[in-house]
Amino acid sequence: MPTPESTLLQSWHHNAQPWIEAIRAGTIESRHQVTDQAILLAVLGRQPERVLDLGCGEGWLLRALTDRSIDAVGVDGETSLVEAARAAGPSRVHLASYEALVEGNVDIGRDYNLICANFALLHQDIIPLLAAMNALLAPGGALVVQTLHPWTAAAGDYQDGWRQESFAGFKGQWQPMPWYFRTLSSWLNALDMAGFRLIGLQEPQHPQSPVPQSLLLVAQGQAQ
Ligand SMILES: C[S@@+](CC[C@H](N)C(=O)[O-])C[C@H]1O[C@@H](n2cnc3c(N)ncnc32)[C@H](O)[C@@H]1O
């Protein structure tokens, strides 16, 4: 019986091509209106020299950082997305699942000034992965996570649990993706349990939208 986690990563195998097309054509409105800029500014604002983009997908953020002379390294568990990221920019992009990163099976470098995860923490047990990322940060390094805003995404059911994204309204053939909804306190607890200290919280919002488009958390790594 497949776990939601394995179905989640497998859905990216199926959805890689339409995802690459959607990102590169800029068809996801919330991204090009609000959230791309939000994560980019949050990362640039910390003036990092070396950045790891965790769950980098097809690599748009790596390219945006490289364009600004930042040494950006990516890692993702989906082969086609990693290949697309490698082909589209000069960044090193590692192929590794989060499970492999937790087990320390893959060397993806260390001493990063900043690790970011843009809509890439979609599974349930994120604490071991966050703790593994904490160990890859240089002293004083930070983690920047952008995710679905819990209040906007709750849809009337504000408790941690698996949900399903159907990609209705997206162009192309998509396989539904399980993802784990977590409340704001659950996010903050996960950061704390992984040895991070929250130093910033933003709710990026379009001026013409009544609800925030995302939740953006900035946390300082700490010795564990
Ligand atoms: C919504 S996409 C975000 C991609 C990219 N950060 C962006 O902003 O476009 C989620 C990414 O997480 C990756 N991912 C999900 N589960 C994973 C896992 N268990 N191991 C490695 N990567 C995973 C997927 O392959 C996908 O690229």
Please report the number of helical segments: 8
Query: From the alpha-carbon coordinates, what is the Rg to the nearest angstrom?
Result: 16 Å
Tally of DSSP β-strands: 9
Average pLDDT, rounded to a whole number, is 96
> Order of SSEs, N→C?
HHEHEHEHEHEHEEHEE
* CATH-derived architecture: 3-Layer(aba) Sandwich
What strand line-up does the widest sheet have? 3-2-1-4-5-9-8
Q: Indicate the percent of residues in helices.
A: 25-40%
- Major beta sheet summary: 7 strands, mixed
The termini sit apart by: 35 Å
CATH fold-level assignment: Rossmann fold
| Distinct small molecules bound, one entry per kind | S-adenosylmethionine
Name of the CATH first level: Alpha Beta
Percentage of residues in strands: 25-35%
Poorly predicted runs are none
- Structural class label: alpha/beta
Shape: globular
Fourth-level CATH superfamily: Vaccinia Virus protein VP39
